[in-house]
Amino acid sequence: MEDKALLIREACEADLPALIALFAADAVGGHGDTTDPEAFGEYARAFAAIKASTDQTLYVAEFAGEVVGTFQTMNTTSLTGRGSSAMIIEAVQTQADLRGQGIGAAMIEFCVAEARRRCMRLVQLTSNAARKDAHRFYERQGFKASHIGFKMALK
User: Fold this and answer.
1) I need a labelling partner for 141 at 20 to 30 A (CA). Which of 21, 69, 100, 112 fits?
2) Which CATH number fits domain 3-140: 3.40.630.30, 3.40.640.10, 3.30.470.20, 2.60.40.10?
3) Mean pLDDT per 10-residue run, the chain (155 residues)?
4) What is the spatial order of strands in the sheet that 66-77 belongs to?
5) Distance between CA 77 and CA 16 in Å, rounded?
6) 3-state helix, strand, coil in the chain (%, to 5)
7) Taking CA 43 as the corner, what is the angle to CA 51 and CA 101, rounded to the nearest 5 degrees?
C-alpha cells in the first residue's frame, strides 16, 4: 500500500458504520461491539462525546475512499513529570485483511508526530494481553512494555 494514497483524518459521523464494523469484526477485543442497528444510538452518543471533548480525537485511516483503520487519541496532563502532558492512543484497529501493509505504522507515526508537535512528554497505549502480534508491532514502532495494566469491569 502506498503511503501517499493513505489518508489519516479526523473521523466524521458518516464514518460510524465503517468504524462499528471494524470493531465488531474484532474477535479478540471482547468489547461486545455489534453492527446490530439497535446499538447504533450508543455509538452515536459516544461519537458525540468524543467530538465535544477538547482532549480526545477519533481518527480514521482511509484508502481509496474506504475506512481501513481507526484510532483515538486522548491528551492528559498530570502533576508527574513536572506537569507534563502525554498522549494516550486507544482503540487502534486495522481492517483484518489489510494488516501488514503499513496502515498501522502510518497511524502510529501520525500519533507520534502529533505528540511531538504538541511537545508532549510521551505517547502511551495499552494492548490486550492476547494480542501477541500487536505487541511485536508496537515494539517495532519503538514502544517498550514498561508497565502492567489493570482493569475493573463495571458493566
Assistant:
1) 21
2) 3.40.630.30
3) 80 97 86 91 97 97 96 96 95 93 96 97 93 92 93 88
4) 6-10, 56-63, 66-77, 85-94, 122-125
5) 29
6) 40, 25, 35
7) 80
Question: CA 25 from chain center: how many Å?
Answer: 15
Cα separation, 131 vs 138, whole angstroms: 11
pLDDT at 27: 81
The residue whose grid cell reads 507520534 is 112
Looking at beta carbons, which pairs linking 48-53 to residues 24 or more positions away fall under 8 Å? none
